Amino acid sequence: MLSLGSTRTVLTRGAAVAAAGMLLFTAAPARADDVRGGQRPVIRTLELTHAWRTSKGRGVTVAVLDSGVDPRHRDLVGSVRVGKDFTAGANPPGVAPLRLHGTYMASLIAGHGHGPGGNLGIIGVAPEADVLSVRVILEDEEPGFREFNTAERFENVVARGIRYAVDEGADVINMSISKELATEEERAAIRYAISKGVVLVAAAGNDGDRKVDVDYAPYSYPAAFPGVVSVGATDRRLRRAAFSNWNSSVLVAAPGVDIMGAGPGDEYWVGRGTSQATALVSGVAALIKAKYPDMSPPLVARALTAGANDRPPGGYDIATGFGVVNAARALSEAGKLAGYTETAAGAQAQDSAEPLPGGRAAPIKVIARDERSVAIHTTVAAAATLGALASLAVIFVLVRRVRRAHSSQGA
Q: Catalytic one among 66, 75, 130, 140?
């Protein structure tokens, strides 16, 4: 099954009640200024105030492949286009989608706040970006959840959602979802997206505290496909959160604990998971694509890694990848890379760069990860577009069935 639902606490009217393993509480609605205050740690960690002097994401479309986005939330209104629902037929007729997780993720990416100057409510990483909502998953609470996760006709909804998002003009695709099965259709869809210049960002998964007999946490898809920016989550100290998967697919990390976001019906949520970290990184990718619209996915990935803070000893580890994403530094690194495009010959990416007019050629080196690594630094996405997906796939253990684990951390 697909893994999705992050742990979330809703701040809205009502007494405390238990629902689907989550605690919903408070006796009074959260004040919008309290919400913005709750975002300060993320804004500070990503250096967003500095980054917004360069880019706020204007002109970029981020496709949110998720459970649906509420286009009427006051912090998202005017920024959301509701696209295709690939889960249609799973819920009984007349049942409206809950759109909890998807709204939450969209707000972290492109929330623009509300009130005078937009100073109240949720501000996303790329507040001037647009969102394309593509529904590819149901919430645990929806009545069609079981049907969706057992019926064969829904097996390749993620692959179809990726292709649809690309064809609808997405610049970045956020996939705060994870599963154990890698299909050929998804592999091909990712190649297609990268070939069109679309940046793909996905959650590394939330089984990091699961006991296994190997020295890494399980691989999750689509994050573990080469060419996808795989995102781990950090705690308040910017160390790997206990739930965050740790393996050589992890490229970068972002805050994933006590993350404030929006929910349907003008609610606000606090939650944790690699889902939230992924949405934040997608927002940074949107800032880069807005400033440098022609930048290729491998170079966007390089900007994210080169600009990361809190780098582990040696520059890379399987817990937080190349470090914690920093929006201001990533934009600065993107500026240095803007004059180049990666080149490749045959079925193997080359360690070189070709200058655009006015640029100066410089090598783009392949940087190996630690001794257990199978992925590379920035040329991994280029390799994906040229068929390296097939050669790397044998490293990963594929299972026949997709998992949707609704744990205390969630994806």
A: 66
Is residue 276 helix, strand or coil?
Answer: helix
Say which residue the tokens 């997709």 belong to: 402
| Strand, helix or coil for residue 239 | coil
Distance in angstroms (rounded) separating the CA atoms of residues 171 and 34: 32
Active site residue 266: no
Where does residue 27 rank: exposed (0-12), middle (13-18), buried (19+ CB within 10 A)?
A: exposed
Q: What pLDDT, on a 0 to 100 scale, did the predictor assign at position 351? A: 35
66 is catalytic: yes
Taking CB atoms within 8 Å and a gap of at least 24, the contacts of 87-91 are 87/135, 87/136, 87/137, 87/138, 87/144, 87/148, 87/154, 87/157, 89/153, 90/138, 90/142, 90/144, 90/145, 90/147, 90/148, 90/151, 90/154, 91/138, 91/142, 91/143, 91/144, 91/147
Q: What is the mean pLDDT of residues 161-187?
A: 96
231: left (phi over 0), alpha (psi -120 to 50) or beta: beta
Q: Which of 79, 107, 275, 282 is catalytic?
A: 275
| Beta strand 199-203 pairing with 229-234 | parallel
Catalytic residue (one of 101, 114, 377, 406) = 101
How far apart are alpha carbons 254 and 323 in whole angstroms? 8
Q: What's 7-393's CATH class? A: alpha beta
Amino acid residing at 253: A
Active-site residue flag, 75: no
Which residue type sits at 95?
V
Place 34 in a pLDDT band, splitting at 50, 70 and 90: confident
Distance CA 337, CA 345 (A): 21
**Cα separation of 178 and 46, whole Å?**
24
Instruction: Output phi, psi for 152, to 5 deg.
Output: -65, -30
100-110 and 274-291 are packed helices; what angle lies between their axes, rounded to 10 degrees? 40
Reply yes or no on whether the pLDDT at 207 is more than 70: yes
- How crowded is the C-beta side of 262, counted as CA atoms within 13 Å? 31
Contact 177, 158 (CB under 8 A): yes
